[in-house]
Amino acid sequence: MNIFRTKDIGLLHREVENHSLKRALGAADIVMMGIGVIIGTGIFVLTGVAAANFAGPGIMLSFALSSIACIFICLAYSELASSIPAAGSAYTYTYVAGGELLAWLVGWNLILEYSVGASAVAGGWSAYFVGILKSAGVELPQAITAVPYDGGIVNLPAVLIVLFITFVLVRGVKESATVNRWLVGVKLGAIFLFLLLAGPKVDATNWTPFLPYGVAGISAGASIIFFAYLGIDSLATAAEETRNPQRDMPIGIIVSLLICTVLYIAVSCVLTGVVPYGELNTAEPVTFVLRKLGYNFGSALVGTGAIAGLTTVCLVMIYAQTRAFFAMSRDGLIPPGLCKVHPKYGSPHIITLIVGLTVAGIAGFTPIGLVAEMCNIGTLFAFTVATGCVLVLRKTQPNLKRPFRCPAPKIVVPLAMLSSLYIMSGLPAATWVRFAVWSLIGLAIYAVYGARNSRVGQAKAEDKIAA
Prior knowledge:
This protein is mainly alpha-helical. Helix content is 71%, strand content 0%. The protein has one domain (25-466): Up-down Bundle (Amino acid/polyamine transporter I), CATH 1.20.1740.10. The chain starts with 8 loop residues before the first helix and ends with a helix.
């Protein structure tokens, strides 16, 4: 049993042809998906908390630092997505370059990231939804808006939004992209409304002191708000459903990052310029600032935009998890029957339903505050391994067709890996313990099932017998 066996590019292309998902996305769809998943919790929740507790007005530099790290990662991912246009993103890239066992660990941690992350976002969506209803005079009982740990029975709004997203995803990727496009439009409108209303009220004296927590506060803030950029990996999972992945994936990944970075810095600049940073320790900093300025109606509109924003984040996260599962089941590492594509909708409907029901259950009944930290460490682990695959493939497969080539890979790739490891180092020790336990569980499952049913392993065994 060779746990370091790699996947042949030719075999991968044949599998894509035989188990093809419907190619319905263009570059604009990838950009909108990127904006949909990157702009959400970070801009509507974490910006204020990070400014108040970690970086002060220097949160602008924290976003700049995080975006620089993401630029390195995006350049590496763009080469991988254009040269290996298959579902699975980091999992698939690692399988081709780093071997089966390492690929399994990457995929296993991505599963946790997407499911917990989507559940956390659904919980945030529920909080905003309940808050808007309350401001309109409609107060839902705690029994159906809180998990049992918090004194309720079920967080019903969180369950319902996940089930709605699951229904949309089962209907097909094109329909999902259409819903995402409209919601992103609402979200961007809300952000521009906030900048229009609050921008003229900026008082530069609120930016003094600019670094109340010192230079260390910039990196601490960057570690917290990096959660906003975790969706980058989910974009690469759409490569197999993109009409021209060699061109559209690099455009979608890089352009969406640049747009989101500009918006993040602009919003953090206005937030810290309108009120003292110490007052921003709230889960709804954007609407809080507008209410403080007296724009109650504007606050309600932006709150609606926040709901739209969180919906798109949840949608793309669940979408990405289903595609990661799809790639792993196609490889035989989990039961292959899960990768069946619906004959009418062209979506992996079985996996989508399983994932949707699981995420709905977590969101409705489980307190995910502590576990949500594992979103960061799982994705950063995937970033570290996947970006390193660029250098491995440059050496082992120099003739691989690369429509997009990462510039200066010997500089960019190590910087991408070091950036991810640096941000990982700032996470709590308890998160590392949970990461280790989850990885051990994954290794046990791989040993019992995956290693014995690997299609790559079976194909190589057959070739060996034939030789």
